[in-house]
Structures are given as structure tokens and as C-alpha cells.
Amino acid sequence: MGGLLAFGMLAALSALQSVVLMGVLSLFLALGLNPAVEWFTRRGAPRGLAVAIVALTLVALLVLGAWAVLPLLTEQVNALVLSFPAYLQGLRENPSVADLDAQFQLINRASQALTSGAWVEGMFGGILGAGVAIVNVLFSAFVTLVLTLWFLAFLPGIKNTIYQLAPASRRPRVRYLAGEVFRRIGGYMSGLFLVVSLAAGSAFIFLNLVGLGSYSLALAVVVAGFAFIPLVGPTIAMLIVAVVAFSTSVTTGVITVVFFLVYQQIDAYLIQPRIFQRSVNVPGPLIVIAALSGGILFGIPGALIAIPTVASALLIYREVLIPALDRA
């Protein structure tokens, strides 16, 4: 009966994987935003008012980011569609490409696939499937935002409920360990916000210096969005910005790629280790392994929650398992 019950619970968790991930991610985001709420409460503001201020600020930032990105995205898509025939003609004039195209008809197949919408069919199952995928992403983002605000508003009560689950004799120890886990999770999320802000600010300043001022705000928002994705996010952002830069001039594109490659090294070996070493106390190799494993298992949400989860596990290992083994 115990084995069947455990199997049933695992099957239920597997079926509810997306819901569980949204809940855990929302809790982690709430712990990351909690220092901002406590900053207002320490200055006499009620917690409800403090949560409202932080929530309105967060929503305003999201709206401003969408307002900055959507016009650029529309402009770049229209420019790509208008210049697509010229790109194909340039490829046909290349002798090597022309020989390959004569044998395999690559350009004609690519043109037919793009103009017929076959790529949409392959990726999303048609226009309806693409619409459903977009609605699912928006719905997941909305639910995550609502759960984050709910956790943020009732976080003290949630912590007290967790503390009361422990026996009275061990409650002080459990309170200390749970408080340290919450502090490390919140420290990681706060540190991540700082890393993202530095990346977006550096990109904004650089793009204005190289003459991409009309796109600087939107591209900085793109950099900020992908900076939340560990390991692969900065590279994807670099490719997107490089496409826009190369559309203006080859020199600007090369300089942009060099800048982002250099900044990625500085970010990986100087900025992030200094920030996360103080907040989560996790060795560098474990950070890489955790981010890769979480991304492979659960996608972007898994990559986000993997590092604070490993930090919490290391805390339990150091504070509970090692002392118990020493006493044995």
C-alpha cells in the first residue's frame, strides 16, 4: 500500500508538473521581492501598501518593457519580410550557393516553406496551434504573477505555518534552518535582479555609443529578459542584438559581437561569482551543473530554481547531515 501510494503521488506530481513549477517559481520570486517590501515596512508602511507599491512598480516595468520591444519587433519583422527577396537573389548570385541550389533546390524549398506557412505548421501545428501556444505562455505568466503577489502578501504567515510543522522542542532549530533557506533563495533572486540590471544598463549605454540609440531601450529590454535564463540566455540575446547591429553596418555588428563576448566573460567570472558567493554560497561548478540539469529537466523555470534549490540542499547538508554523522 505504501508503494502504491508513493507511485500515485509521483504520477500526480508528474501530471501537475507545470502547476508545481509555477508555484515554486512564484514562491522564489516572492522571496526575491520580499526585501523591497520589508524596506517599505521598516519605514512604517503597512505590508499591504508595501506589496501594492512593489507590485505596481513591477507591472509598470513589464508594461514599459513591452512598449519598448513590440515596436522594434514589428519593425524588424516587416524589414525582414520586405528584404527577403533581395536576400534570396543575393544567395542565387553566389556561385557556390547557386551550384548547391541547382542540385538540391534549397532556396526554392526555403522560399516555399516560408511563404506557405509550413514552418508555423511544423513548430506549432498550424496557426491555431501557434495561437494556443501564445495564449498558454501569457496565461502561465499571468498565473505566476498573481501567485507571486499572493505569496508576497502572506509570506510571514506562510513562514509561521512552516515553523509550526516542527515539534516544539526543535522549532527554534527549524526556524533557523528555514530562515536561512529563505534568505538564500531571496538572496539569489535579488542577486539575479542585480545581474540583469547591470547587463541591461551596460547594453543600453553601449548601444547608444555605437549609434543604435533608436533601438537601445528595446534591445536593452531584450538583453534583460534573456539575462534571467542561465547559461544560454546571454548568448541568445547577443545573437538578437547582433542581427539588428549587422543590419546597420558590418563594422557595428562586429563591434557589438566583440562587446557582448567580452561582457559575458566579465559577467561569468567577475560579476556573478562576487554577487552569488555572498548570497547563496554555492561553488561555481555546482552552479553550472545545477543550471544545466534544471534546464534539461524542466526548461527555463527549472534553470531558474535549480541554483537556489542546490543552495538550500547544501545548507541542509552542512547544518544537519554533517553534524549528525559527526555525532554517530
Automatic annotation (TrEMBL):
Question: What organism is recorded for this protein?
Answer: Propioniciclava flava
- Which Pfam families does the record cross-reference, listed alphabetically? AI-2E_transport
Where is the major localization of this protein?
membrane
Q: Where in the cell is it found?
A: Membrane
Instruction: Decide whether keyword Electron transport is in the record.
Output: no
- Membrane topology field: Multi-pass membrane protein
InterPro entries the record matches: AI-2E-like
This chain's protein is named: AI-2E family transporter
Give UniProt keywords alphabetically: Membrane, Transmembrane, Transmembrane helix
Segments spanning the bilayer are: 6-37, 49-70, 127-155, 185-206, 212-232, 239-266, 286-317
The entry sums up its family as follows:
Belongs to the autoinducer-2 exporter (AI-2E) (TC 2.A.86) family.
Q: Listed GO cellular component terms? A: membrane
